[in-house]
Specification:
The structure holds 4 protein chains of 4 kinds.
Chain A: H1 39-70, H2 77-102, H3 110-124, H4 136-159, H5 164-183, H6 193-200, E1 202-203, E2 206-207, H7 208-226, H8 228-245, H9 250-276, H10 287-298, H11 309-328, H12 333-352
Antiparallel strand pairs in A: 1-2
Helix pairs in contact in A: 1-11, 1-12, 2-7, 2-8, 2-9, 2-10, 2-11, 3-4, 3-5, 3-9, 4-5, 4-9, 6-7, 6-9, 7-8, 8-9, 10-11, 11-12
Chain B: H1 2-9, H2 21-49, H3 56-81, H4 89-107, H5 112-132, H6 137-155, E1 161-162, E2 175-176, E3 179-180, H7 181-199, H8 201-211, H9 213-218, H10 223-249, E4 251-252, H11 261-270, H12 282-301, H13 306-324
Helix pairs in contact in B: 2-12, 3-7, 3-8, 3-10, 3-11, 3-12, 4-5, 4-6, 4-10, 5-6, 5-10, 7-8, 8-10, 11-12, 12-13
Chain D: H1 4-8, E1 24-29, H2 35-50, E2 55-59, H3 64-76, E3 83-87, H4 92-105, E4 108-112, E5 127-132, H5 135-149, E6 154-160, H6 166-181, E7 185-192, H7 197-211, E8 215-220, H8 223-236, E9 242-244, H9 250-257, E10 263-266, H10 269-284, H11 295-298, E11 299-302, E12 305-308, H12 312-315, E13 334-337
Parallel strand pairs in D: 1-2, 1-3, 3-4, 4-5, 5-11, 6-7, 6-8, 8-9
Antiparallel strand pairs in D: 10-12, 11-13
Helix pairs in contact in D: 2-10, 3-4, 5-6, 7-8
Classes of the chains: A mainly alpha, B mainly alpha, C alpha/beta, D alpha/beta.
Bound molecules: adenosine-5'-triphosphate (ATP) (2 copies) and magnesium ion (MG) (2 copies).
Chain lengths: 363, 334, 513, 341
């Protein structure tokens, strides 16, 4: 038979094996979309993981380079600050939603939760509507409220066994309802100076809010890396049935992951309120899709178990740079949205193109 | 070993003594009719606050209101069945409404045909990108959402495009034998799509791809083609929905119907179709769309404040799903 | 070989099952099962597909709730609520590689849900985690790094991690654990089986083991006592020292094994015309493969894990992206880029991974069977329900598939029956010209295996070419007319294996490694 | 008036004959989550109370489909000939179906803000009136106030509303008109911020980086965006940039009072909420003969008020003057017919 004397044997470990391979139960749910698990296939998936993150980074870099080349304003230090400041809220929200996406679940509750939390915080700190002046305590209570919303989403999803798409969609409506009731026709203007300073006071050129966001992201990353909530969320997203078989109370940890996410949304709502200067019911409109898109662009997949807080941050920066750059390069407002949509798809497509064959099932 | 997994992910059997075969199928039957029962219960409950809701006129108005949503929802059902998601439907419907309004002077009533064809093509493009570049359908269609609304904005000059020749769209808003024609058109779409999915191999292919794409591929099912076809169908349905919207507002607009996305997906889920794919069907979505519409309009008519209305909507929609979905069909809950 | 030194018969059992009954819709899976497991012994469990072995094991870890009967652990009756509960009384199960989470580290997997001092104050202490996991890995002498990501391990390595994970039970209970192994060897090569058996013997020093396998010789080799199950009941309890495989076979299927297992006498001479001709097939894992198969010929492919034989087969079916080469089926070029094209050209493929690649488990037997060639039951574009039912009934009867009805979800059938449905999926087509079988008898009981062999013979007899990747070398030799041997992605030999003149396995082994 | 009104009256004339207690009052706005529309509904409530009725409040979340569904359902429940609807159509395209539905059900209708140019209330018996504000005028007025504040020279940036709305387009036209009169003012950039506060904040910050010192003023198509811009200026630590908006939401009034905003324009939401119901109520009870209303008043621009530092005190606590809703003084705020564009 053909050439027994190959100059060198196939390098079995150097290159990741293609899809075909040894027996491989996608360990996860019945849909077979869980990460494949043979050595060959697994190595492929994992390297696809790495490649995807790297590709997102490259896409971000390309965006930066292109905009910098076209627009002199884009290159300024002031604009860098602006981008960081603009990314702050989305960064916090995306950190939160990453915990949910890691589970393989989805969260559409942001508009409602943020609306309710924004109204709550603006009514708890010194404001134009009532005589409350809880200051930091008010902010803490708001974050707790966000966490409570998250926990409720989690409890409803896991105990009633309802798809998270639906529970969180319903939760969004409930949150908006609560926000509307709290609003009662008059917008509470935030008079609390320290909260106001979040948006206006600068330290080393960055707003307080940006620094808080950095801290929050770091905290999110730490939770993901060092706590059961974070680690189990990844494991559950990787193979929920197996985690269950190992005796882990999956429902509890899913719920807690939603709770953590909710706390971040609560913080995000406080930041938005600080920025807007008053309690706005619709403060969270559109943040659900923005946060999910950011996370997914960064390589946190909707199927769960892949990505993470830091990856999501790549997406946050990419989206912010894109919005900023399109304005600075003078793209007509009429087509900005369309251009943004195309670039997002292109960026993801180009990023995955080299590994598309190894990706297996893509939903 | 292979079996181990099958068994462990199989139906949960923790509900006490073994149900006999008979009881089991009764349960299935109950689940089958649950969405319908929820719909009836909701109507009855709402009518205690507003008895007019049950009048024939009112019921017909509900059906009429539901028509565009229903058409959108059955389209996205096909995509969801094969495991994906289509977020572009509402934007595509808006674009279609603009195209329809612009093309009526050229083609008259027949403008609906090229409009639906263009929408189907748009769906197919998204499907191809998803299949060929292996980009998550969520992202592809999210990009689509932005792109189609951008195009609609540009070709309409960011304005509402009025329909000058109302006769050209009369077919879509008259009544036939006492029934609004929009309802009949929607039902026609339901019947055609339902028949294709039930009677031809297409339905199985879609479900097989949704349940176990790899197994489907290795059984020789043209997985890529099935997915592209699903997105094409979804696009075509969005096109038809756009046409129905024009017949409702006598104009096309770049934001017309853009708010129907989440209600449409909610209709699919409330009907009992698994959001993870594989299980469910068109008929369920029809009931789901009606439930969503009853919730949307019914609640605003029983006279509670906007805040409470929203809360009740949230609670009821979660409650509706809680009783309509068949949990044994969801291996892992996402 | 174990020397079958029985522990004192008087020792009270660690685990006893009394009158256990479990009913599924249309099936009595357990029918008053009685058995016991004593301290430090290996209990073999054999039975046909669907005899209730897995159901029993699942009941023992709280994954299935029996309808009646009792489970007694160390003299105390328990009602197991779930895996965690079972673990707390010292019962653990190896679900094979199925039960490792791919995207986390080995240490996390081993300690999953029971991190102990690996988590302090709610925070993971990664160094401690690694140490704790290493203790378990050391027990079985595994060299795997506790910090490695699980999906970077090889198949055999993961199996070891699996065992280490179950052994971690010891740390959590005051008692010696009972370890349940459900068909752990069905996907292993002989070498790996040896490693596993070494672990099991070591395990017996400190635990009891229940071992399920369809390979009777293995059961005889490792067990101290063997229960034979049939229809949810124990029909015999035997001492491995006193029986041989033939006796077990007899007990198992209730009748004498008919002649040769492999139906050697049914092997016919293949036709002269070349059915499939492969020139320079090239993929990432398999280089310059060239060979031919004649109509009616069974071509075996032998090779160790990673030899590329699976990739070769998948490439022929169009399931390996980027495969190149000149492949002619009956003289016509075969596209290598789509399974669909292969199916339309008359090629069939039975993947080794039944659960994720073979069946769509929540769809019905009928739908699974007619999936590939649904055209044969269509009238125009519409599926003809009556014709389809008739076809399925025919094949259910012909292959003796045990299913409550054609509408049953295939996932609830036993593995053997699922496999038969997958085979039928290809056999329904009149135009089947080449069938690629990847480990077709994996997980099948001896009876079912024999039936599958008969089917393969029949298929070949009718002129279909068969490419066969076997579980064992013995199987490959017995079933094939010729055997290709692969190593490191290359074909290293091609041996004739005519009836009565089968080559020496040793020669093949040499070409393999 | 056009004769078509009389000609088409078939049985259901243009004069109502409903007993006051049989009238159903329906007020429909986008949502109750912003001060302007909340005030609108309160005005409606006040009017309803003054005639011993209750207003049914509908909100549709800025969702055209939901608005249509609600209208259809309100009209489908039984006899609608004594139903009065005061609606804020979501967009131009939504007015036609609302009008047709009301016409088909013989309900009394008043619409505000949005209407396609070729749709004329005089062609209908029971579409009492359409009232709106001259967007060109409001855009122009605040632009002038803004430019004056800037001393007649410098650079401005414009924040547009949702691009496909007439309001956004007209107001922007007004800005351009003012720009022609002030040659020393340059429009540095215009971007859309979707009438949204958070978006306006981001866009403004980006534009500030781009144009830096050049920015002397920010023209916003509504107050929400203006307030977002104010917030952005504060965050960027920029002083001395004038900001103007439209709508006179309470926060904007406060901002004008404390000097962080220059001007806004009030349309008087409570009055809008009340007057629409009042028109329908008078028509339904027969006190107002729709056919006899001056054609110029069937589709009119209502009076709007430029608010600056000088007069902000008068607007900070708006009170409804109930005498404005007597059936014979309903059109007192009309400033002229809607110019066909
Ligand atoms: N979840 C389930 N739902 C319905 N029937 C089931 C389920 N699990 C098992 N069964 C049925 O119970 C019977 C016993 O199955 P079990 O899996 O215990 O057999 P087994 O001895 O393990 O077979 P194999 O050797 O093929 O693994 C079979 O007929 C099977 O079809
Ligand atoms: N690009 C590559 N470079 C080097 N080696 C590769 C490459 N791609 C695949 N391989 C190796 O080739 C082997 C192909 O494995 P395959 O599963 O086909 O083996 P097999 O002989 O079928 O095993 P088994 O008999 O157990 O099924 C894999 O082990 C993989 O590591
Ligand atoms: Mg292999
Ligand atoms: Mg079994």
């Amino acid at each position: 038979m053909a050439g027994d004397t190959a100059p060198h044997a196939p390098t079995r470990t150097l290159e990741p094996a293609p899809l075909a391979g040894a027996p491989a139960p996608g360990a996860g749910g019945g849909n077979g979309d869980a990460p494949a698990a043979t050595s060959g296939r697994a190595r492929a998936t994992r390297s696809a993981d790495v490649v995807q993150t790297r590709a997102s980074l490259i896409a971000l870099a390309v965006l930066v380079v292109v905009f910098a080349a076209i627009s002199p304003q884009f290159r300024t230090a002031g604009n860098l600050q602006q981008i960081i400041d603009a990314a702050a809220v989305l960064a916090v929200l995306a950190t939160g939603i990453t915990f949910v996406l890691m589970l393989g679940a989805i969260d559409l509750s942001l508009p409602g939760v943020i609306g309710a939390c924004a109204m709550t915080v603006s009514l708890l700190v010194a404001n134009s509507r009532n005589t409350q002046d809880l200051g930091l305590l008010g902010i803490a209570l708001t974050i707790l409220l966000g966490a409570a919303f998250g926990l409720l989403s989690g409890v409803l999803s896991t105990r009633l066994r309802i798809p998270t798409f639906m529970t969180t969609l319903g939760m969004s409506a409930i949150g908006l309802g609560i926000a509307t009731i709290l609003f009662a026709g008059v917008r509470p203007v935030v008079l609390d100076e320290s909260l106001g300073a979040w948006a206006s006071h600068r330290i080393a050129g960055f707003t307080v809010m940006s620094l808080i966001a950095v801290a929050a992201v770091a905290l999110g990353w730490a939770i993901q890396r060092w706590t059961r909530i974070g680690r189990y969320a990844a494991a559950i997203g990787g193979a929920e049935d197996i985690v269950l078989l190992s005796g882990v109370p999956v429902a509890r940890y899913k719920t807690l992951a939603f709770g953590v996410a909710g706390a971040f949304y609560g913080l995000g709502a406080v930041m938005l309120t600080a920025r807007l200067g008053s309690g706005v019911v619709e403060a969270g409109a559109g943040t659900d899709f923005a946060a999910i898109t950011a996370a997914v662009i960064g390589g946190t997949l909707l199927s769960g178990g892949r990505g993470g807080v830091l990856q999501s941050m790549i997406g946050v920066l990419a989206l912010t740079v894109l919005a900023n750059g399109l304005i600075l390069t003078g793209v007509s407002p009429y087509v900005q949205q369309a251009v943004q949509g195309v670039i997002v798809v292109l960026a993801v497509a180009v990023a995955t193109w080299p590994v598309r064959r190894r990706l297996g099932v893509v939903k | 070993m292979t079996e181990t997994a099958v068994e462990t992910t199989g139906p949960r059997d923790d509900d006490g003594p073994a149900p006999g075969a008979g009881r089991r199928s009764r349960r299935d039957l109950a689940l089958l009719f649950m969405p319908g029962a929820v719909l009836v219960l909701l109507l009855l409950a709402l009518s205690t606050r507003n008895p007019d809701l049950l009048s024939p006129d009112s019921l017909l108005a509900i059906a009429d209101s539901a028509a565009p949503l229903m058409v959108l929802a059955i389209g996205v059902t096909v995509v969801i069945l094969c495991g994906g998601i289509d977020l572009s439907i509402a934007a595509l419907a808006a674009l279609s409404s603009v195209l329809f309004a612009l093309w009526i002077p050229l083609f008259g009533a027949a403008a609906a045909v090229p409009v639906i064809a263009v929408a189907a093509l748009a769906g197919a493009v998204q499907g191809l990108v998803h299949v060929k570049a292996k980009v998550n359908s969520f992202i592809v269609t999210l990009g689509g959402l932005a792109l189609w609304s951008g195009i609609a904005l540009v070709i309409s000059g960011a304005r509402t495009v009025p329909v000058t020749d109302v006769d050209a769209i009369r077919w879509a808003f008259t009544t036939v034998a006492g029934l609004p024609s929009a309802v009949l058109i929607a039902l026609g779409a339901v019947v055609v799509l339902g028949a294709v999915l039930r009677l031809t191999p297409a339905g199985r292919w879609v479900r097989a791809v949704g349940h176990a794409e790899q197994a489907a591929r290795l059984a020789g099912i043209p997985v890529g083609a099935v997915k592209v076809a699903a997105f094409t169908t979804s696009g075509a349905c969005a096109g038809l929905a756009g046409v129905l919207l024009v017949a409702r507002t006598f104009s096309g607009a770049p934001s017309l119907g853009a708010t129907l996305l989440l209600p449409a997906v909610a209709a699919v889920v409330v009907g009992g179709t698994a959001i993870t794919g594989g299980f469910g069907g068109i008929g369920r979505t029809v009931i789901g769309a009606l439930i969503v519409i009853v919730l949307r309009v019914g609640l605003s008519l029983i006279g509670v404040d906007a805040g409470f209305e929203s809360i009740i909507y949230g609670v009821l929609i979660i409650g509706a799903v809680a009783v309509t979905i068949d949990r044994t069909k969801l291996d892992v809950l996402k | 070989m174990s020397n079958h030194v029985r522990p004192a018969a008087a020792t009270s059992p660690v685990l006893a099952v009394r009158g256990l009954t479990k009913r599924y819709p249309g099936v009595l899976a357990l029918d008053g099962m009685d058995l016991e497991v004593r301290p430090r012994e290996v209990v073999g469990l054999i039975g046909e597909n669907g005899a209730g072995k897995s159901t029993l094991l699942k009941s023992l870890v709280g994954l299935a709730q029996p309808d009646s009967g009792s489970i007694v652990v160390r003299g105390e009756e328990v009602r197991l609520r779930g895996v965690a509960h079972a673990a707390s009384v010292g019962i653990g199960m190896v679900f094979q590689e199925q039960s490792l989470v791919p995207n986390i580290t080995v240490a996390e997997n081993i300690l999953l849900g029971a991190e102990g001092s690996g988590v302090r104050g709610g925070l993971f202490r990664w160094r401690r985690m690694a140490e704790l996991a290493q203790v378990q890995l050391d027990k079985i002498g595994s060299t795997v790094s506790a910090r490695a990501r699980t999906d970077s391990l090889t198949f055999a390595q993961r199996q070891m991690v699996e065992v280490a994970k179950v052994l971690a039970l010891e740390e959590r209970t005051a008692h010696e654990p009972v370890v349940l192994l459900d068909e752990p060897t069905s996907v292993l090569e002989r070498e790996e089986v040896e490693t596993l058996f070494a672990q099991v013997r070591r395990l017996r020093e400190r635990a009891s083991v229940v071992f399920v396998s369809h390979r009777l010789d293995e059961v005889l080799e490792i067990s101290d006592r063997v229960y034979v199950l049939r229809n949810g009941r124990v029909v015999a309890e035997v001492d491995p020292a006193e029986v041989d495989a033939t006796d077990l076979h007899h007990l198992l299927i209730g009748r004498e094994s008919t002649g040769s297992h492999y139906h050697d006498d049914a092997q016919q001479q293949p036709a002269a015309d070349v059915r499939l001709s492969v020139r320079d097939l090239q993929t990432a894992g398999c280089t310059q493969a060239s060979f031919e198969i004649r109509a009616g010929e069974v071509l075996g492919v032998a090779g160790v894990q990673g030899s590329g034989r699976e990739e070769l087969c998948r490439a022929l079916f169009g399931a390996v992206p980027g495969a190149r080469g000149e492949v002619l089926l009956d003289g016509k070029p075969l596209r290598l880029d789509s399974p669909r094209a292969a199916v339309l050209a008359g090629v069939g493929y039975v993947p080794s991974e039944r659960r994720t690649e073979g069946v769509v488990s929540s769809m019905s037997v009928t739908e699974n069977m007619s999936m590939a060639h649904v055209g044969t039951v269509c009238r125009g574009p519409v599926i003809d329900g009556r014709r389809e039912r008739a076809l399925v009934d025919t094949w259910v009867r012909r292959l003796g598939i045990r299913t409550p009805s054609g509408d049953t979800a295939i996932g609830t059938l036993s593995g053997g029956n699922q496999q038969k449905v997958v085979l039928a999926r290809w056999m329904v087509s009149e135009q089947l010209r080449l069938l690629i079988l990847d480990h077709p008898t994996r997980g099948l009981d001896v009876g079912a295996k024999s039936e599958v062999y008969e089917l393969i013979r029949e298929l070949a007899g009718s002129g279909c070419a068969v490419l066969l990747l076997s579980d064992t070398l013995e199987e490959a030799l017995a079933m094939s007319h010729r055997v290709l041997v692969m190593k490191d992605g290359r074909i290293t030999a091609c041996l004739d294996a005519p009836r009565g003149g089968k080559p020496d396995p040793v020669a093949i082994m040499e070409a393999m490694v | 008036g056009e004769s078509s009104a009389e000609a088409e009256g078939e049985g259901s004339g243009s004069t109502g004959a409903c007993a006051p207690e049989d009238v159903t009052l329906v007020g429909q706005v986008r949502n109750q989550t912003n001060p302007y529309e909340a005030a609108w509904l309160e005005g409606g409530d006040a009017f309803a109370e003054s005639v011993g009725l209750e207003q049914q409040k509908l909100t549709y979340d800025g969702d055209s489909q939901q608005q249509q569904e609600q209208i259809r359902q309100v009209l489908a429940s039984g006899d609608a000939s004594c139903t009065v609807i005061n609606a804020l159509p979501n967009g131009d395209s939504d007015t036609t179906p609302i009008v047709n539905a009301a016409d088909g059900a013989d309900a009394w209708l008043v619409t505000q803000w949005n209407k396609p140019a070729d749709l004329d209330p005089t062609a209908y018996d029971r579409w009492v009136a359409h009232l709106t504000y001259d967007g060109v005028e409001s855009g122009y007025q605040i632009a002038k106030a803004l430019f004056e504040e800037m001393g007649g020279s410098g650079g401005v940036i414009a924040l547009q509303g949702i691009l496909d709305t007439a309001a956004a387009q007209d107001r922007f036209l007004g800005l351009q008109k003012a720009l022609e009169e002030y040659p020393d003012i340059t429009l540095l950039d215009d971007q859309t911020a979707d009438f949204d506060r958070a978006t306006a904040l981001e866009v403004t910050r980006t534009l500030l980086t781009q144009h830096g010192e050049e920015v002397g003023g920010i023209w916003a198509a509504n107050d929400d965006m203006a307030l977002g811009a104010v917030q952005a200026l504060e965050a960027a630590g920029v002083d001395g940039v004038a900001v103007a908006g439209i709508d006179a939401v309470p926060e904007a009034l406060e901002a004008i009072a404390d000097g962080s905003m220059t001007a806004t324009v009030s349309s008087d939401g409570p009055w809008q909420g009340a007057v629409g119901l009042a028109m329908g109520y008078c028509a339904a009870t027969g006190e107002l003969d729709v056919a006899s209303i001056d054609a110029e008043d069937r589709a009119f621009f209502a009076e709007q008020f430029l608010i600056t530092e000088d007069n902000v005190g008068e607007f900070s606590d708006p009170q409804l003057d109930m005498s404005e809703f007597d059936c014979d003084s309903l059109f007192s705020r009309a400033t002229g017919p809607i110019a066909a564009s």
